[in-house]
Known about the structure:
Number of helices: 5
Radius of gyration: 11 Å
Oligomer: single chain
Helix content: 55-70%
Distance between the termini: 6 Å
Shape: globular
Amino acid sequence: xxxxxxxxxxxxxxxxxxxxxxxxxxxxxxxxxxxxxxxxxxxxxxxxxxxxxxxxxxxxxxxxxxxx
Length: 68
């Protein structure tokens, strides 16, 4: 997971972690844990797809963020 890249995408889209959390059905705390991979937290496939859709990410960018 490329934390910096995801945070950059959020910022580039004038979004916030709070709004993203709401959009994909997570608490802000849980989203932050997943972004920073705390306590073994990671994004599941539906969450990754929701983020892809929200920010209109292409496959290359998606892979660079989640599967680097």
